[in-house]
Design a protein that fits this description.
mainly beta; 6-stranded antiparallel beta sheet; 5 helices
């Protein structure tokens, strides 16, 4: 039998090649579309709290009621009998897997799954985190940024505060304070006290009742040793609409230390004295302060703070390691004193104000003069 040769039409071959390219493009486009619709990232903030990072596009994220399929058989639960609720409202979806619909910043909520008789099987709080460039919960300060942190001394305690945006209602969802990256954090049942531990440092943090300030203490901190690593604090805040934002700051205690106000008194007509704040680290020879004295000659009745608003001032700087005294001019009406760490370029304390008492001359003394 002779071989049969089949000739291929060049036009047909070209069409087949184009069809293959077209099908390949459809596959790639479909893959890219599905990939683009998926969340950017997701991670667990705390048990039963899932954070879904989004980029604003539409997408879906599956939630599992029971992690292991064998649990359905063990509990004698049929897949189709499981129903879901979002923020207490029953959803149409049924089954062990729930498809969370993501669109822009929507999709967060409190998701619960239940058996046929209504018993709770599991729950997951989904928080939505957008791009870090989008900040909506806190107000930003030009000098401090979003978090304002300071310490009264070098004993290892510091606090950070923030200002809520007027149109947002939020609360603390998570706090992490650390000097090294392998720190693990947990919260107590009240949701107000946090513990962050690693092999090198332990931090205990608590949120005050106002909800805009956290106080932390590094238990293993040595005030006499030089800090080799910065403190890194992260505050995760969430809104009532299940949006999550992360605000963080890095610093050494020497950069944020701010002494309390000094105690100031009048010795005699021309002499004033002040002392170190009782909360400042000791010994003072190791933690010296520099003091600034402002002498006010005129009164400023309408000033909110005469120490900063008065125009008639004469300022002097005095280093000291103990109780300080300073002789003021005869025409000075009041004195202001503030302090800062003498060895670091840190913050000044708030001003302490003292109005001087002057002895009035009697008529007999005035006639002699």
């Amino acid at each position: 039998m002779s071989d049969i040769k089949v000739s291929q039409n060049p036009r047909t071959g070209e069409m087949n090649a184009k069809m293959e390219v077209f099908v390949w493009c459809l596959f790639v486009c479909a893959f890219l579309q599905v990939s683009h619709q998926n969340p950017v990232d997701l991670w667990t903030l705390l048990p039963h709290i899932l954070v879904v990072e989004v980029d604003g596009t539409e997408g879906q994220q599956p939630l599992s009621c029971l992690e292991l399929p064998d649990e359905l058989m063990a509990r004698d639960i049929k897949n189709e009998d499981i129903f879901w609720r979002k923020n207490g409202w029953e959803e149409e979806q049924r089954g062990n897997t729930y498809l969370l619909q993501l669109e822009e910043s929507l999709g967060g909520g409190n998701y619960t799954c239940h058996s046929k008789d209504g018993s709770l099987l599991n729950h997951t709080v989904v928080l939505i985190q957008e791009d870090e460039a989008i900040r909506r919960i806190l107000m930003k300060s030009e000098q401090e940024g979003y978090l304002k942190c300071s310490a009264q001394n070098y004993n290892g305690e510091f606090h950070c505060s923030w200002t809520w945006h007027s149109n947002r209602v939020g609360k603390v969802a998570f706090i992490k304070a650390q000097r090294v990256s392998d720190t693990q954090c947990s919260v107590d049942e009240s949701g107000q006290r946090w513990t962050c531990s690693s092999g090198q440092s332990n931090f205990n943090c608590s949120v005050d009742n106002s909800g805009h300030r956290v106080v932390c203490l590094e238990e293993q901190h040595c005030p006499y040793a030089e800090e080799s690593q910065q403190i890194h604090i992260s505050v995760y805040l969430r809104t009532e609409h299940f949006l999550l934002e992360n605000y963080s700051k890095r610093f050494y205690l020497s950069e944020i230390v701010k002494p309390d106000k000094v105690s100031i008194g009048q010795v005699n007509t021309t002499m004033v004295e002040w002392s170190y704040p009782s909360s400042w680290s000791s010994p003072y020879s190791y933690f010296p302060l520099t003091f600034e004295i402002a002498q006010l000659r005129g009164r400023c009745k309408k000033c909110d703070n005469p120490c900063t608003d008065s125009k008639a001032t004469k300022t002097s700087t005095v280093p000291s390691t103990n109780i300080c005294q300073f002789e003021v001019k005869h025409k000075v009406k009041a004195v202001c004193v503030r302090a800062k760490d003498a060895l670091c370029n840190s913050q000044w304390s708030e001003w302490s104000y003292l109005r001087l008492r002057r002895h009035k001359k009697n008529k007999h003394q005035q006639s002699k003069n």
